[in-house]
Amino acid sequence: MKLVHAGILALAALSPLAGCTSDVAPPDTSAGRATSSLSLDVTVRASDAYVLVQADVRDGSTSLQLAAGDRLSAGFDGLPATSTWLQRVGSGYAAELAGRSDTLLLALLRDDAAAVSAPSTRLTLPPAFDVVAPTTTVSRASAITLTWSPTDATREMSLEATGACIQTLDRTLSHDPGTFTLQPADLFAKPGEQLQPCELVLTLRRAGGAVAFDPALGPGGRATLTQERVVRIATTP
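Above: the chain's sequence. Below: its structure in token form.
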């Protein structure tokens, strides 16, 4: 079993290609907009080693680029040294924080004296968990069991299995049993791959958590908060 770190660099593919030109109109920006008209659409994905924070600044349904003097930062609550600026990635902003924490602070900071900052959006992640999976090569003709702890019966879990030799498998666990066994019948081989060894990539996700948006922000904010663990298991037919 190998734990996987797939961080912010994976988002680079979402960015516009350097040097590309078009007749697209310039983006709407936050300049001149009251903080009370702005909202944040936030996605946080936490692994055992890092936390990826993505944020989109909106005015109603319009996605905005931050104007000069407007910045987003994120850090672990109570640990100001972990705070880092979010960088432009695609149409939004993102940053990667090294380490683990249950609570993050997201700040919209505005240098304009006429604008109000919103420094204290608090994001509480669902409980972290650790996964135990096979550490040696296993056969796909045998059951493959994952266990994780601690469990949380109030949270929904999901499992995704991918690999060069299998069709993607998705399972939603309406409660958190702390264990899941992949049976041979769950894994459908891709055409021509039935007899091939390959690596299975198993992703466990725990959804939930809570958000308290800074009161200076306007209504309409959203947050998707997920604990995610990825393991890789070498398999034979």
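The chain has two domains: 2-16+26-126+208-225, 130-207+232-236.
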